[in-house]
Amino acid sequence: MSTRSSGLPLASNSFAYITFLAGVCAALHVWKLPPALPELQRQLGMTLVESGFLLSLVQVGGMTLGVLVGLMAEKIGLRRCVLAGLTLLAFSSAVGPLFDSKSALLLSRGIEGLGFLMVVMPAPGMIRRMVEPAYLSRLLGLWGAYVPLATILALVFGSWLLSVASWQVLWWVLALLTAVIGVVIYSKVPPDAVYRVAGSDDPAASKAPRALALVRQTLTSKNVWLVTLCAMVYASQWMAVVGFLPSIYVAEGFSGTTAGLMAALVGGSNALGSLGGGRLVHRGFQPHNLIITAFVTMSFCTIIAFGVGAPSWLQLTMALIFSAVGGLVPGNMFFLALQMSPSREATSTSVGLLQQCLSFGQFIGPPIVAWVATLAGNWHMTWTVSVVLSAFGVFMALNLGKAMRARALV
What we know:
CATH topology: Growth Hormone, Chain: A
Shape: globular
Radius of gyration: 20 Å
Number of helices: 18
Structural class: mainly alpha
Number of strands: 0
Number of domains: 1
């Protein structure tokens, strides 16, 4: 095991990869729903708008409790917070299917949302403590791919499993997997006390601000808000497009398995952009320019995919490009949240606010797109949502570039 200059032990990158697997496992619980949505609509008699809220309800915990969970994670320890989140996910996924009703399913999704937040919110901070600074942008780029990787796994495996079993079985399989990942984290990843945060040798750094001061630092930081609002407008449109793709393709006559595979390709392509975003920043590209490129591309692709009556093959191609290039945004967001944090002590609350805005975007995106589709009678006007959100994202990214120049980060 390598060491920092202080002589304290530094975890190998393998611990960061294990943390990444925990994030993938947590995101599987978010993305297990889309392939099961057609069956749930039939079984529970759900409307399109109700389905949109079911897709996004898992984000309620994240959009309301992100900063508070950030504070809690610092108090109880990042590793303990991850383990508690995995426990909640396993419990809810195991118990939820026992009550076959819309209310029970909605409640279990809310609990899963809190568990998901408790896993993914502390993870970037854990990775920052585990790796050398030179590798941080690349490994946080990898972390940004945890959602697309979970998406492709959930849509492919979930669609296959749902072709031979019920949605309840899918929920129970993921509960078991989550429990296994929890055991791996508990047995393989050392406690937080093993790590020394860079800069903590400074006696002044050991005097941590009070919780209220950290919250105030975070919520009054213009730079943090620029990062988190970019993330919000990205997440809302990406979640809506990818989340409804299985339903769109089933309505066009594709089988559930084929529709799930097509949606999985789209969701999985996002990982390419996320991984590429971290590597491009490592090679000297400016994060705000990559984010602007992503938003412009996403707008163009949704116009072609949904606004001009494109055939299925062209629609799928545009969706793939939409997701892949859009991945440049999450590939940079977690890195920027750490870089633009008002202080080192406010890192967890900054990531918590980022996760809060990501969750809020994912919460409002599907219902808004479903509402527009319902008003229009089909999906041909849903591109307008992406164009409006992307324009706002470009504006935020331009201001983010100015803020980075002011801080001499570019």
